[in-house]
Amino acid sequence: MLSFFLYIDNTSWYNKKGFMDNKNPKLTKTRQKKIISLVSIYWKRLALAAVCMIVVAAANGAMALLVKPVMDDIFINRNKEMLLLIPGIAILVFFLKGFGSYGSEYLMNYIGEKIIRFFRDSLYEKITDLPISFIHKEKTGALMSRITNDVNIVKGMVSTAVINVFRDFFSVIAFLFVIFYRDWQLALGAFIVLPLAFYPIVLFGRRVRKFSTGTQETMADLNSFLHETFTGSKIIKIFNLQAFEKNRFKEKTQRLFQLEMKKVIAKALSSPVMEFLGGLGIAFIIWFGGLRVINGTSTPGTFFSFLTAVMMLYDPVKKLSKLNNTIQEGVASATRIFDVLEETSSIIETNTPETLSGSTLDVEFDHVSFAYNDTEAAALKDINLKIAPGEVLALVGMSGGGKTSLVNLVPRLYDATQGAVRIAGKNVKDLSIKSLRDHISIVTQEPILFNESVKDNIRYGKMDATAAEIETAAKAAYAFDFIQGFPKGFDTIIGELGSRLSGGEKQRICIARAMIKNAPILILDEATSALDSEAERVVQKALENLMRGRTSFVIAHRLSTIDYASRIIVLKNGSIKEQGTHDELMALKAEYFKLQTMQASKGLE
Ligand SMILES: Nc1ncnc2c1ncn2[C@@H]1O[C@H](COP(=O)(O)OP(=O)(O)O)[C@@H](O)[C@H]1O
Ligand SMILES: [Mg+2]
Q1: CATH number of the domain at 9-183+315-345, please?
Q2: Residue 554 backbone phi and psi in degrees, to 5
């Protein structure tokens, strides 16, 4: 069950892009050093844990040693003193073992959990700061699993591996000591036979690992399939694709079933085979050890003490042999974590960033070209544009024309590949990112609200806003009345409203948020496109309140909504095809005119 979660998300998708190749995970020297330095912060706890583990190992050895006096002194020689002494020692040994075991578990898990938290926090900070292009490139689910699953696997590597190495290694040493101390000749005999049991361990381990990789990939595939079909459930229902998707899902679970069963067979066979081979070793020890007792070279106590140590040796050896798997998994996860942590942001500040100030700002695009990546065609080509302070500029054009790409360059969600975007005469790349974004508000097509109260969602625009300011913003956004109607008014949690909140209402809360931010530059990216015309009318009024006095970029799908604009730009294939007022562009009878007539004929007007 645990492995189900651990394997949920693995590599296959990024491998395609070559982003994170986990087929042969290896930690570079610097990454190893990083992990070691993280662990070594806790060196005092580590040292204490090591002492605890040595206590456990010594107690284990003592238990095997005790078998001899029990046998020889109590049972054979009927020594009454020993009858009292040995149980006393046994109590002490078990107490020490329990104490050491608790101490080592507690301390090692403490360190492990600290490391988990460190990685979680660093990953979240990193991902939050990376440009949105990074989140677009990775799948959200994959990034989430960095923070939820991978960190746990790394903890497994750090704490389990360290516990196993120390405690089991020390235990092995303690048992070997007992074995040789009790009867070194028998020990030599046994060690010729026992290694035979090791070969199958290696063999089965390899098979299990091979199938594990297969299941991991299938699991990853299943995971993205689930994500896709659950989010797209509406389409699946309407297109009557349920049966089709169910079949596809069943094919995947069938494949997973087959792989899991192969793994189960390899795993299930490995312990009986190992036990049988171990049994052969025990048979040899009984024969050879028994012979020596019968000869009088050894005593029954020596023999049983020896046998106990050999049997107790099995458990730590088995755990140590599995250590490699834990470490391999841990290394693979650590590699994925470090890949994210070491990702460099392409959107960076200069060493001495300037701060932007002013409540009216102009924006200029100076020979701006932009491509999402080297291989793709430019999304924007040689854009030259000046927007005066307080001017409302409408951007229109067919979808894919580059409207969103253009406005994204203003807050530096992306950086221009060539040319410069300037605000108040300053290149945006020379500004501090915080001060730049402080001066820009955005309302997108998809209203994005967080699962907090309505009040807090509006407050996102200005963290120290007073209740009165929030109400004023809500009023200007035509949101006040319907918010008042919510069960707890402004304190209602968004999630509690469920589908009660309509698209238009959500959008008006978003507008209130942008309103309270009171930024001089405003971006409206198809803010009304997802709404029906009824809702659009109110939202449009709210937007007009919002635009008043601000330098605004208005991207509109429905041309009827851009009356407010003083100038219209038509973007096509990343270039400005024409610009002017509505009347001028209509008179041109070119692109804008075509867009208008197209919409009119579709009844969108
Ligand atoms: N994140 C992205 N990665 C790669 N290409 C993109 C991305 N977003 C948009 N594009 C491409 O850039 C071009 C312009 O898109 P966009 O600016 O979204 O147009 P519009 O907003 O006018 O519909 C399109 O060809 C689109 O496929
Ligand atoms: Mg767009």
Answers
A1: 1.20.1560.10
A2: -115, 115
